[in-house]
Amino acid sequence: MGIMEIFAQLSANHTQTGGKPEWLIVGLGNPGMTYENTRHNAGFMTIDTLAKAQNADVTRMKFKAYCGDIVLGGQKCLLMKPNTYMNNSGEAVEAALQFYKLDIDRLIVVYDDISLETGKLRIRRKGSDGGHNGIKSIIALTGSQDFARIKVGVGKKPHKDYNLADWVLSQFKKDEMPLMEEACRHACECLELMVQGKTDAAMNKFNA
């Protein structure tokens, strides 16, 4: 199935949802125009791509996050972009999990990874924070690292002495944007598979 067919199917699946979501899908990033298209906002970019494909609105402020409802792969999902800034992402995630009484295995987090080449993906069922402050916050506040995640490659630092904060807050170069746009579309396909219990299929197809 091609990307356009996938997106057509995603759009066809979209309906207004109500009640308790079955999944919480969180993209990590920093809010505000200053941080648009920066490496640290790969998670936000993925959520925006999915919302656009579903003709969904992710602007409702709840749980210290921008939220929106979709149906993906037949599953009710709450999309979330924490408004807490990266280091406090766990505040939004923990609040939503508690409110909807969702188990940690119903959480999928999408975020940037500097150890992967720009545009590459890596899906994991669980794991440590790997030095990522957003994931560190989620693990600290939920008390668990047993949640699925999609890592989106944003490229390594140009050299070892390059300041890490400066690198992740830098914008993608013009020639990197097509790679990131494709990565976000692929991440959306992964999410559809994962909420249907097909994480192995997503890993086999997209893991770098």
Q: Which bin fits the share of residues in helices?
A: 25-40%
Report the CATH C-level class: Alpha Beta
Termini gap: 20 Å
> What is the radius of gyration?
16 Å
- The tally of beta strands, per DSSP, is 7
What's the number of structural domains?
1
Question: What does the largest sheet look like?
Answer: 7 strands, mixed
How many helices in DSSP terms? 7
Shape category: globular
Topology overview:
Elements: H1 3-13, E1 23-27, H2 42-54, E2 60-62, E3 65-72, E4 75-82, H3 89-100, E5 107-113, E6 121-124, H4 133-142, E7 148-153, H5 164-168, H6 177-195, H7 199-206
Parallel strand pairs: 1-4, 1-5, 5-7
Antiparallel strand pairs: 2-3, 3-4, 6-7
Helix pairs in contact: 2-6, 3-4, 6-7
Question: What are the key terms here?
Answer:
208 residues, alpha/beta, Rossmann fold, seven-stranded mixed beta sheet, 7 helices, 7 strands, 38% helix, globular
Could you describe the 3D structure shown?
The protein is built from seven helices and seven strands. The longest helix is centred in the C-terminal third of the chain and has 19 residues, at 177-195. The chain has a single domain, classed as Peptidyl-tRNA hydrolase (Rossmann fold). It has helices at residues 3-13, 42-54, 89-100, 133-142, 164-168, 177-195, 199-206, and strands spanning 23-27, 60-62, 65-72, 75-82, 107-113, 121-124, 148-153. The protein starts with a helix and ends with a helix. The protein has a seven-stranded mixed sheet, with helices on both faces. Helix content is 38%, strand content 20%. The chain has 208 residues and is α/β, with parallel strands linked by helices. Helix 2 crosses helix 6 (177-195) and helix 6 (177-195) packs antiparallel against helix 7 (199-206). 44% of the residues are buried. Residues 11-16 have low confidence and may be disordered.
